[in-house]
């Protein structure tokens, strides 16, 4: 007779999965409320979503249990806490934008908000584990929800964007599954910590198979991070999504994937596997440079911001390549500052939207913003602020993020990489200033095709205001933010 397995619930550390359970329970509550009472105002679902996000954030920041939990699948270290905080804050700012658009029908459906919370739970699982199986489950939970959210925008381009994103995501999922299979075959484990120990104990023998596994994992993570050459889906998906959703895609899925990439590639970079470093070096340099060049010739602002977001992802991927404590801190500093600036820029596109597209071949051409300063000085000034920050002009927020990563590259001995980073930052200034030139130096084209800051509701103004204040005030809060990031990174051992 087989003895039953006894489980000590205290040792499970169920608090480690409490943040994800908050998001999942929130999604189920929204669905149950809709089942019981139909035709409720969408603002109720927005407020319920915000409420569960606040509880989720409290569960994350208030966590003080053991690092490991739930059969050792969960890894609630400082890195996980920081990443989850960024995910939840960005999600909260994004979901408030839904109060501003009565005409977009997706917000009328409670399923939209339920899927949104399921997606957040998926991203949280990705950042809070080193098990390749649980990472895959979180990745697919978040991705399938996100594909549906994009398609619910109910425009031809939105359906096309969702299909392209789904197709590329399916390829990425296949790559991830195959890469995980390779490492399980080599080490007999799917946990990154045990994989690292097993490979180090064998002195990384069977290098050809390790190379195959790394290439497949790089392909999978490259699809999610839109690294070159896996970036081809990004501009079309950004263009087909609503402006607010495009801003969200550029921030939250990437920080979750950055954490997975950080945990995975640390195995090989810490062991000085030179060819992995060379491959990452090439991907980082190309991802920073090629999208920058393509962004120079874009005529649509949303596509320009899409390519610039790819370049920013390459910039942050460089920190993973450098692999020092300063570089790891730079990932979170840079992406926190980028979160406010980029979400603010896309929110301004959300406000200054075309009432109709007659005469414009795209939704957000540069010409639509011609002479904006004469029509709406506040809109022009705030949009110009976000462009200057994205360009890295001091003293605005992203300047400090770029300087910190450049310092990490120099201190880590990557002088050529630091030079390439600086050159790409200089190139990017041109296409960010291009929009400023249109807004401040050109004459208005067609005043009746655009809405302005004065037409935005109070909630939308609050979101844009928070982003603008964070962008301007970075010079004052950069030191305490760095101290907070440094604390969480150091307790994680990075």
Describe what you observe in this structure.
There is one protein chain. Residues 354-361 have low confidence and may be disordered. It is built from 21 helices and two strands. The chain is an all-alpha fold and 494 residues long. It is globular. 72% of the residues lie in helices and 1% in strands. The chain has a two-stranded antiparallel ribbon. It has one domain (10-491).
Question: Secondary structure elements and their pairing?
Answer:
Blueprint (H helix, E strand, L loop, with lengths): L8 H4 L5 H19 L5 H20 L6 E2 L4 E2 L2 H19 L13 H18 L4 H20 L4 H32 L4 H10 L5 H19 L8 H7 L2 H7 L2 H19 L3 H22 L5 H22 L2 H27 L20 H4 L1 H14 L6 H15 L3 H27 L16 H15 L1 H18 L3
Antiparallel strand pairs: 1-2
Helix pairs in contact: 2-3, 2-5, 3-4, 3-5, 4-5, 4-12, 4-15, 4-21, 5-6, 5-12, 6-7, 7-8, 7-9, 7-10, 8-12, 9-12, 10-11, 10-14, 11-15, 12-14, 12-15, 13-14, 13-19, 14-15, 14-18, 14-19, 15-17, 15-18, 15-20, 15-21, 17-19, 17-20, 18-19
Strand numbers in spatial order across the main sheet: 1-2
SSE string, helix = H, strand = E?
HHHEEHHHHHHHHHHHHHHHHHH
- Molecular shape: globular
- Number of individual domains: 1
Percent of sequence in beta strands: under 5%
Number of helices: 21
**Gap from first CA to last CA:** 47 Å
Radius of gyration: 22 Å
Instruction: Describe the main β-sheet briefly.
Output: 2 strands, antiparallel
